[in-house]
Amino acid sequence: MRRTVFFVSESTGITAETLGHSLLSQFDTVEFEQVYMPYINTELRAQALTQRMQEAAERDGVRPIVFATMLDDGIRAILKGGNCFYIELFEVFVEPLARELGVPPSLKAGRSHAITKPSYYTKRIEAINFAMSNDDGVRPENFHRADVILTGVSRSGKTPTCLYLAMHYGLRAANYPLTEEDFERGDVPQLLYDCRHKLFALTIDPQRLQLIREERRPGSPYASLKRCQDEIRLAHQIYRRLQVPVLNTTSQSIEEISSQVVKALKENQEGQGALTIVETGF
After folding, report:
1. How far apart are CA 36 and CA 171, in angstroms?
2. 3.30.70, 3.30.2000, 2.60.120, 3.40.50: CATH of 2-101
3. Among 64, 78, 147, 275, which has the minimal tally of Cβ within 10 Å of its Cβ?
4. Helix boundaries (H) for the chain
5. CATH class of 118-269
6. Percent of the chain with pLDDT strictly greater than 70
7. Which residues form a coiled coil (predicted)?
8. Does this chain's domain 2-101 share its CATH topology with 118-269?
9. Residues of the binding site for ADP
10. DSSP assignments along 195-246, one per residue
11. Judging by DSSP bridges, how do beta strands 65-69 and 31-37 pair with one another?
12. Could you report the per-residue pLDDT of 113-156, keeping only the tens digit for each?
């Protein structure tokens, strides 16, 4: 089955996209073609969008699904009148919440970040800059400043996970790639042992790793299945020596891996008060 899905908003569309993705993830037998439509903030744009919905319906033979965060009644009415299955996310959640709180909502677009403290926003930006400037072990002297360090073989998911931890949790995340030199000596620099309390190892199925590397460097020794198998095997020997948590990225998303890292960090820091985790859903 194939369905076209539109994520629509008067503003950036982050809320519609995030909630929509969470709902769609429960239907893994359906193929979704996803269309992002932020800043639909005029009736003219809404009318143009209904035409795109009609074209999708004719192409797919079934009406498209629309996840929307639309506060303007006029624009919302135009979209609802289109050939689509329309889900207004604010309607589902805001009205019951208003009844519980006993106060009306502001009904202003782009307010999702307003609830975040300015200091948290600044912390997140600093964390993103830290993750980018300390990627791939380029500045190991900064590991002592990191909140979390990831290690693993090339293309196991270190960089995107570090960026996600920075963007969504405000954590200063660095990573160390295991190299041929590490494999030859069967160990990593002492610096990583000194940081074991905030070190996490990533692993991945060799066949999956081979597919990822093949996309990057087709037909190369770097992408061969044997090399992938050897590196994963040697990496696990190092992980056992380090005695650090090992997280498998084969079938888990970046979000799932990150949540496990954050949970472990919270448990490690419980009662110490040394770590602030933002958790703002940026």
Report:
1. 28
2. 3.40.50
3. 275
4. 14-24, 43-60, 73-80, 89-101, 118-133, 158-169, 180-185, 190-194, 206-216, 225-242, 254-269
5. alpha beta
6. 90
7. none
8. yes
9. 152-159
10. TGGGEEEEE--HHHHHHHHHHHSTT-GGG-HHHHHHHHHHHHHHHHHHT--E
11. unpaired
12. 544 555 677 888 899 999 999 999 999 999 999 999 999 999 99
Sign (positive or negative) of CA dihedral 86, 87, 91, 96 = positive
Q: pLDDT digits over 6-33, tens only?
A: 999 988 787 888 888 888 988 988 999 9
Rounded to whole angstroms, how far apart are CA atoms 17 and 281?
12
CA atoms in the 13 A half-sphere facing the CB of 132: 7
Where exactly are the structural domains of the chain?
2-101, 118-269
Whether 274 shows a pLDDT value over 60: the answer reads no
- How many angstroms from the chain centroid is the CA of residue 7? 17
Residues annotated within the binding site are 152-159
Cβ contacts of 91 within 8 Å, gap of 6 or more = none
Structure tokens at 14: 């982050």
| Pairwise CA distance, residues 150 & 159, whole Å | 9
Distances (CA, A) of 110 to 39, 79, 107: 10, 19, 10
At which residue do the structure tokens 């009644």 appear? 73
Q: How far apart are CA 231 and CA 179, in angstroms?
A: 9
* Cβ–Cβ under 8 Å, residues 85 and 241: no
Q: In this structure, what token pair is assigned to residue 38?
A: 């932020």
Q: How far apart are CA 226 and CA 232, in angstroms?
A: 10
Pairing assessment for the beta strands 148-152 and 199-203 based on DSSP bridges: parallel
